[in-house]
Amino acid sequence: MRTRPLLLSLLSAAIAPSHAFANNAIEEIVVTAVRQQAALEDLPYASYHVSEDSLKQARSLPESLAGIPGVSVQKTANGQGSPFIRGFTGYRTLALIDGVRYNNSVYRDGPSEYFGLIDSQGLSGLELINGPASVLYGSDAIGGTLNLHSKSPTAFENNGFSKQFRQQLRWSSAENSLRSRSELDIGRGNDWGLLAGFSYKDFGSVKAADLGTLATSGYSERSYDIHYKKQLNEDWQLQALYQNLQQDDVWRTHSTIYAKPFAGSSVGSDLRRSKDQQRRFGYLKLIGQNKTPWIDRTEITLSRQEWIEFGQRQRSSSDWVVERFDSRMSGLDIQLHSQLGDHQFTYGLDIYRDLVDTGRRELDSQGQLIRERIQGPVGDDSRFSQGGIYTQWQYTIHDDWQWQIGSRYTWVRASIARFEDPSNGQVASYAQQWNNVSSSLKLLWQPQDSNWQAWFGISQAFRAPNIADLSRFGASRSNETEIAALALSPEHFLTGEASLRWSNLDADSGALWQLNAFHTDIEDYISSTPTGRIVEGLIEVSKANSSNGYMHGFEAIAQWRLNHHWQLKANASWVQGEQSLPDFRDDQYFSRSMPFSGSAALAWNHLGHKVEIELRHNSKANHLSPADLDDTQRIPPGGTPAFTLLNIRSEHPLSSVGNWYLDLNNVTDEAYRSHGSGINEPGRGISVGVDIRW
Hints:
Largest sheet: 22 strands, antiparallel, barrel
Family: Belongs to the TonB-dependent receptor family. Hemoglobin/haptoglobin binding protein subfamily.
CATH topology: Maltoporin, Chain A
Radius of gyration: 24 Å
Shape: globular
GO cellular component, one term: cell outer membrane
GO molecular function, one term: siderophore uptake transmembrane transporter activity
CATH architecture: Beta Barrel
Number of helices: 5
Subcellular location: Cell outer membrane
Oligomer: single chain
Distance between the termini: 62 Å
Helix content: under 10%
Protein name: Hemoglobin/transferrin/lactoferrin receptor protein
Low-confidence stretches: 1-27
């Protein structure tokens, strides 16, 4: 392995990403993704916040993350997007909804479409914690953790009985989309509250610069959600949430004959490749302010999530592959907080169990059954359980210094009742269990009466093989087909971080800058490895603990408040990783390595009128892995071209009932796609929306 120095730090700040409007007032953003309710500046984490305003102006949830330092968004299709956070994606990043685990055991190693199955209009904001969080959440929390905050009834916070209706509409020309959100917010203050929302989205075919209309890139989506709060007594509150989302006819156009080449990329041969998906998610949460000498706060959460996926693929021979899976995950999370003098403790346990059923049928061109396979995209009748106990201790050593020490014990068990044995094609079964202890140590320096702050940390993280690793079956990348892999061990990661921050911001003037850097050592990395066989013209691959490596980089943010109305913001990030691979003498780049990227924005705010002009740049992505070089449908020869975008966003009051906004997107009509994506982004267009309440 070629060694690399630990980069000195660039940033992670308690400010929104570049596409969020500036506020006149200094907003204290409270973080809960680290299982604490504390202001960002008081925590040793690289943290970012995306506001509800930013969410409502983005097309979907993946797009709302574009522009955050350390994050790139890959889109296999228009309805399928996934963030890369510090070089990791898929099941090496963790998503939470109100602190409840969203990742399931069918998550894949590559960019997965499942992040697009969350309605961004049903969220009041999100937090991103860059870096590992296995101490708090166990497996998967490596590149970063996203905590998505569902909208809750504001009537619960008001005085007396109140009700409010809200309607949001958004139309976009180049995206060819129409989006609607309707809400009812009703309740009695400090007693009960209910928020019910319904969203409908109709996405037509994207109109891309230079390429024109991208056929089969449209789809439809509908969802509804209900959030209920009830104050049981002075100390205890009950919360209940239910979400239901369905997507219809989402195509992976890049692998079909309808794809359009970009910068030399190739076109697929499939006649059809599409998916229908549905997600149901709910929880009951009991929150207590215990007011005892030993326990200050208790949270007990019971959760249930179901994903249903139905996929159709018609190959060039006109034969069909029809496959499905149904994942049903249940969870229990108990979290406690204690404040004992200068000692603050966060501790608890969590248990999740995922039950997965799958199927696959192969049909001829007339729809007649050729054969029914033993399994679908992953093993049939699978069980995946994980649980852990954790504790985190924060202590003020001195007026200027705090340390935070945490540790977690996790156990994981995977069992697969039915999968296709790669050696003979017969039914086989599998069961295995793993254990892990991960720890972290962080030191926060925060001098009193000073504008400076710094923190340093070292953290362990891990990821256990999941059902998708062990029993994946069928098409993978553009030219690959995958088979089961049973001899897998957990991955291990060790990350060092350092951050330096200076700020003298107030409501009218001042500046802020922060630098953050990280270096992650990787052992037993699980990746797709060629078996040496060619099956139906595709390279056969199987997962293996095939490499060790590293990932390192920096993130930077600067903000200048010129006066009460004007603000200038900028950020930049760079991530690079290398790994040792079988059959390669030299180290190779990790797949879809994020290129250097940055953005700058000038924002104006006066009497509720807001305007922002943003420039965003991505350098050419030419650090390609061997798999990237073969993925010619998504990655052009030599890498994904650089691009620079100009966006102008504005928002204005609409009498006393709400506001309206007008965005000019991709003003220079740049032809571009995010690195690793299977589809180009929209060309020049406008977006118009309204948000009214009565």
